[in-house]
Amino acid sequence: MNGSYDKNLDLNLLRLFVIVAEAGSVTAAARRLYLTQPAVSAALRRLASAVGAPLFVRAGRGLALTARGQRLLASARPHLEALVEAALSPAAFDAATSERTVRLGLSDATEAWLLPSLLRALAEEAPRLRLVVIPVQFRTVADALGSSAVDLAVTVAGDLPAGARRRALFMGSFVCLFDPRHARVGKPLTLARYLAHEHVIVSYNGDLRGVMEDSLGVQRRARVSVPSFHSVGAVVEGSALLATVPRIVAREITSLRPRLRAAPLPVSPPGAPLELLWRSAVEDDEAIRFVRDLVTRVAKALERPARRRSAPPST
């Protein structure tokens, strides 16, 4: 940068000058600019004074550029066009080089199975893009979106603020997680056996109620409630406790703790779609769109093998 920016030159005068040069007369330029002829003439005089040389001479009923005016037009026109293009065109997003930071809301269940694979995909496709993960769940995600605390989120959701966008990823379901060395659940797991065991319950309310109590009215024998799914595997392993967890979370837990098993529930709570949610204000943001599409692709790829493994064997 040099001292030229400190000089007192109204850049609007350059735009007016280019339009007068293109129109060939003050009258025609005034019509294009929605100005009066005296206003255009006065502006040209100010620019000529700033430049220190006349820019036009009369030629019949119109104007012709002087040599100084021709040089100024050759320099000013491409720069003005570039400025307009830069102002009106969105900045191009390059996933390979972008250093954007995206605020992603994840429920604790979603974080456990989605985040590792999402980060691996980002390392390959957008190695400089950064994520800030914000904890959300179905009771808090609407406020997080409405207050712009997150750019997008992945969770089960209910009502959303006006203008929020949503995309269903897949329908969630639940299974019973247990340690077969200590919990004798039988095959199949009956409701009587399920209720006879003690349970670890995931409760977002800080009480002893979870998805089975809230959706089905089934009252389990709660030994402990925890605020998230992060500790469920460690609590169940080595104990006779049962845990009711999302099917895809059970897959992640059993991959890390292979002694644990997952069994179909004797009664299943209603399934709820896991959704990708985002604010309408970032609908056209190329970086956010890239992350949305990547989350969708990764989530669906993770869900497919889980669905195949949970399907009954063919006969």
Automatic annotation (TrEMBL):
It comes from the Bacteria. GO terms for molecular function: DNA binding; DNA-binding transcription factor activity. The keyword Transcription regulation applies. SUPFAM superfamilies: Periplasmic binding protein-like II (SSF53850), Winged helix' DNA-binding domain (SSF46785). Pfam families: HTH_1, LysR_substrate. Residues 9-66 form the HTH lysR-type domain. Keywords: DNA-binding, Transcription, Transcription regulation. Belongs to the LysR transcriptional regulatory family. This is LysR family transcriptional regulator.
